[in-house]
Amino acid sequence: MNKSTNSRHERQVDYKSVFENSLDGIYRSTPDGRYIDVNPALVRILGYSSKEELLNVNIARDVYFDQSERRDAAERNSSFTTRLRRKDGSEIWVEITSWVIYGDHGEVLYYEGITRDITDRKQLEQTIWYQAYHDALTGLPNRYLFNDRLNQALANARRTGQILGVMFLDLDNFKNINDSLGHHLGDKLLQMVSLRLLKCIREGDTIARLGGDEFTLLLQLNQADGVISVTKRIQEILRPPFHIEGHELHVTTSIGISIYPLDGDDALTLLKNADTALYRSKEAGRDRYHMYSPAMNAKAFDLLILENRLRHAVPRRELVLHYQPIIRLSDGALTGTEALVRWLQPEAGLVLPGVFIELAEETGLILPIGEWVLQTACEQARFWQKYTEDGWRLSVNLSARQFAQENLPGFLSSMLDKIGLPPSNLEVEITETTALQNVEMTAQTLRKLRDMGIQIAIDDFGTGYSSLSHLRRLPIQSLKIDRSFVCNLANADDDQSIVAAVIALAHSLKMRVVAEGVETQAQLDFLRSHNCDEVQGYLLSPPVPAEQLSSMCINPSSLLPTGA
In CATH terms, is domain 134-293 a member of 3.30.70.270? Predict the structure, then answer.
């Protein structure tokens, strides 16, 4: 054997060794789609039991998902990434480098190639992409993916004339649930809400979680009013309570809507206008939806100015308290007073709470404002204590955010000790909606307050869940009937029946009943005839400055109108 023959033999041995031991699959195939030769690695990669079994498969039918990729690769030397089908039908990702072997006359003799399994790398890439563009908690698209889909939808809509709807959703009072029950339970609630919301959209629509309790939807519509049916479907599907770890939670949502091309031609404008409409829904009382209108931008600007001024109201001593007397119907005695905050703006004069309390709730400013109200009112009540009868009480409203604070009992105890006001002289009022948002948590907090001696009242009864069966589980001393029922007592049989029933049921549960908003003698007469315990309203006295209420305490007399 000469030197040239030895060299050729060595190359053949080296090639065979590489062919047999390579971790990458190596193949040779015919133009009509049959393997001529394959190495052990390709047999393993494609999941076959032997080389002979793989040589009998039809490459186009049994291996390639996309035959066009195989044809493109066969026409030229190439390197590409594709999916291949294993014997068991599972999918793998591979990187293939292939070349064509031609005969002496230019005819294709066969193809050769190297196949590298990159499934792990591809899955890692997909995982990284998914994490970058999806919310980790709910699995929904995140802000980045939503914006990308919105821009793609806008580009398509400009060509086709399609209508798009952009919706902003915000869960009402979600922060109270998070603060009172913990983020673990709040996260579970968000996951359950997401599953319900997914049932409201069609294929081609997108729902994303922006963060916190904020969601946004992209709807591809045939007509602009199609967004209303989706909105109502969302409200309806969220109405049944959520049951999580023994807690029954009720969730509502505020929704803002903008429409392409009516409310904007680009993603930023549509999102901004939908957000503006969302704020309008919150301002209107929550559990509502609003379509965007240009006038909302002016309103939003006014609210921004108002919020900035409100941030300085406490340090600049612009807040004042007025007090509305609470009168016992049996003898007209002053049995208590409700503290009501007012904002004395340098530019606008006296501003009533309906203008700024909702904004304070939304921005979190209600916490320093609420603390100031409690401190100031209790200091004033300490002065009145020496002029009032036993059982006299100062009523102060607690916002939902205040009530959700874990340190509320400790704060009230420390404050009352410092001021020197007996806890029995303080009555805290929470709304029916706040009380029943989570009955277990509410009961636990109220029992701590009651054990301290603080009295408990449910305010605005009848405007929330209206369930005395739930309220009887709470340590409540007073039930305040909302003024919306009182105002129609003279001429509305339904309201008369409701008020009479509430008084009777509350008395059976040993609760004191207070009617708010009494403005006429006819209302007063009805309440007295049905044994209502106490009343407050403009017929008896409007909210007055502390000095004026002081004279009522120091010189007590019946505040019932003459002839009552």
Answer: yes
